[in-house]
Amino acid sequence: MIIKKLNLQNFRNYERETFEFGEGINVLVGKNAQGKTNCAEAIFYLCTGASLRIRHDRQLIRRGADCALLSAETECRYGKITLGAEIRENKRELTLNGVKVARAVDFLGNMKSVFFSPGELRIVQDGPDERRRFLNLSISQTSKSYASALLRYNKILDQRNNLLKERDVSLIFDTLPVWDEQLARYAAVLIRSRREYLGRLAPYAADAHAFLTDGGEKLELGAEGNYPGDEEEIAEKLLKELKNAYERDVRLGFTTVGPHRDDIRILIDGNDARGFASQGQTRTAALSMKLAELEIFKQLSGEAPVLILDDVMSELDLTRRKKLLARTGGVQCILTCTHAERVLYGKECNKIRISGGKIVR
Ligand SMILES: Nc1ncnc2c1ncn2[C@@H]1O[C@H](COP(=O)(O)OP(=O)(O)OP(=O)(O)O)[C@@H](O)[C@H]1O
Ligand SMILES: [Mg+2]
User: Fold this and answer.
1) Residues 272, 196 contacting (CB under 8 angstroms)
2) Which one, of 118, 5, 1, 111, lies nearest residue 52 by Cα?
3) What is the tens place of the pLDDT at every residue in 72-87?
4) Which of 67, 197, 270, 316 places its Cα 20 to 30 Å from the Cα of 144?
5) What is the pLDDT of the chain when averaged over all its residues?
6) pLDDT band of 347, cuts 50, 70, 90
7) Domain 1-112+305-361, what architecture?
8) Are 258 and 190 in contact (CB under 8 A)?
C-alpha cells in the first residue's frame, strides 16, 4: 500500500502544502526544525487516528489557526482510499473516502504504517507502558476487534478505578464483581491477542536481529504474564486474581492486576535488555522489532505498509544503514534526514526538500 499525495492545511508549521510521494524511497531533507517530522507525523496520524508525540490534538493545529486539515490519497490492493482529518480545538472529524467515520476504530488501519524514530528506543529502554503502547498500536492496526476490546477495557478499568476511590467500602465490595465480569472478558481478548501477536513477532524479530548483527547476537521476545489456554480460561484465571487483589486494590485505590500491567520480555543473548543493553544494542533491538512489525503487516494484509523512518539513518552505523535499506525493497519508505547524501549512497529516491514548513521547489 502506498500514499500518493498528502495535503496539509494549518497542520503544525505547515500553512498549506501538498506532497507527492513515489513508490520507493522518499526522502524529506532539510535543516533542523523545518517540518520533516511534522510531515511524518501527519502520515502516521492518518494511518492510526493518533499522534505519536502528544496527547492533545490541539497541538497539531498551526499556532494562530483554528482548524487543521489533513488528507491523503492512498492506494492499496483493493483500490484507492482517501483519508481525511479535520482537527479543531475540542473535536475532530475523520473521513474515509469523503464519508464521516463514526468510530475511530473504523478509521484506524485503512492505511498501515510502521514508524521508527530515535524516540522508539523507549520500547526497549523505558517502563512497561511503552511496550504495551507498541503492542496496542501495532495490533490495533491489524485487528478491529482488538482495538474495540481495548477501548472497552480501558473504559471499564477507569470506572473500576473510580469506584476504588470511593469512601464507602461496603459499596466498593458490593459493586466490584459487576465490573470484574466485564473487565475479565475484554482482558481475555487483549491477553490472547497479545500472546498470539508476540508469538508471530518473535521469530521475525530474531531473524531481523540476526541479520543486522550478522548473527552475532540473539534476540528473544515473549509475553511476561502467564495466562495459558483460551479466552474463557484466561478470563477465569484473571477473575480469580482480581478477587484475590480486592483488599490491595481498595487500599491503593487502583486496579493492580490485568493486561494494563503486563509487559514484554526482551532478551539479548539471554540478558534482560532493559537496563543492560548498550545504546547500539537498544537501537538494533528496537529496529528489529519494527522490521518484524513490517513483516507481520505484510503477512496479515497481503501488502507492505508504509515505512516511516524519522531521523533514524544518522544514528545507525554504515553497515546497519545499508542493511536497513536492503530490507526496504518493495516497501514505500518515507525517510527524513538532514543530509540525504550521507544516508542513501546514491540509491534512487524521490527527494523532497523542506524549509520553514514549505517544500522548496
Ligand atoms: N502547532 C504548531 N504551530 C506552528 N508551528 C509548530 C507547531 N507545532 C510545531 N511547530 C514547529 O514546527 C517546527 C518543525 O518541527 P519538526 O519537528 O517537523 O522539525 P524537523 O524538520 O523534523 O527538525 P529536526 O531535524 O530537528 O528533527 C518546529 O520549529 C516547531 O516549533
Ligand atoms: Mg525531526
Assistant:
1) no
2) 118
3) 999 999 899 999 999 9
4) 67
5) 94
6) confident
7) 3-Layer(aba) Sandwich (3.40)
8) no
Domain coordinates in residue numbering, the chain:
1-112+305-361, 123-299
For 219-264, write each residue's pLDDT tens digit. 999 988 889 999 999 999 999 999 999 999 999 999 999 999 999 9
- 89 CB-near residues (< 8 Å, 6+ apart): 58, 61, 66
Q: How many residues does the chain have?
A: 361
Read off the pLDDT of residues 94-124 as tens digits, 9 standing for 90 and up: 999 999 999 989 999 999 999 999 999 999 9
* CA 357 – ligand 1 centroid, Å: 8
Task: Give me the mean pLDDT over the 21-45 stretch.
Answer: 96
Question: Which of 9, 11, 12 has most ligand 1 atoms within 8 Å of CB, for mutation?
Answer: 12
**Average pLDDT of the segment spanning 43-60:** 88
Is the confidence at residue 62, as pLDDT, over 80?
yes
CA distances from 59 to 41, 53, 113, 184, 274 (A): 12, 10, 22, 35, 31
Which CATH number is associated with domain 123-299? 1.20.1050.90
The residue nearest atom 25 of ligand 1, judged by CA position, is 32
**Distance in angstroms (rounded) separating the CA atoms of residues 245 and 313:** 47
Separation of CA 123 and ligand 1 centre (Å) = 23
User: Residue 12 Cα, ligand 2 centroid: separation in angstroms?
Assistant: 12
The C-alpha cell 521469530 sits at: 203
Ligand 1 centroid to 246 CA: how many Å?
A: 47
